[in-house]
Inverse folding.
């Protein structure tokens, strides 16, 4: 188990990419296009506070992406397995909410796999609501 007392919440930097990528891979969230180093670097150039990382000993152990170009939402919330159940996910959500409030937003949205009942319940315990089941679709262009 990791030590939560040493967790630092901060914005992502280019130097974080290798450990961020490993964190996403471990959480089965890595996408070679969306999470490519060049894509993330472009994103933080445009919106420096759009990726939040949880760091222990200079290694990313969790992250969350923020998108508030139109509707504010979070995605890619993940914590490495050795650091789960220590409140780090809650800390990442709190940091995301703080940033989105600074941007003038009054709500936050997310998409979750409607088959993952355990994760849906975890988000509900964090105060998220919703009864609809949504399917996200995409297409390469």
């Amino acid at each position: 188990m990791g030590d939560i007392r040493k967790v630092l919440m901060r914005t992502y930097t280019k130097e974080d990419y290798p450990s961020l990528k490993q964190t996403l891979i471990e959480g089965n969230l890595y996408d070679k296009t969306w999470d490519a180093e060049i894509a993330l670097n472009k994103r933080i150039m445009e919106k420096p506070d759009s990726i939040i990382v949880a760091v222990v000993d200079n290694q990313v152990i969790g992250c969350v992406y923020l998108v508030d170009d139109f509707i504010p939402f979070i995605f890619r919330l993940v914590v490495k397995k050795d650091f789960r159940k220590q409140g780090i996910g809650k800390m990442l959500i709190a940091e995301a909410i703080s940033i989105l409030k600074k941007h003038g937003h009054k709500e936050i949205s997310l998409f979750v796999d409607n088959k993952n009942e355990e994760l849906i319940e975890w988000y509900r315990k964090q105060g998220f609501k919703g009864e609809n089941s949504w399917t996200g679709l995409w297409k390469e262009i």
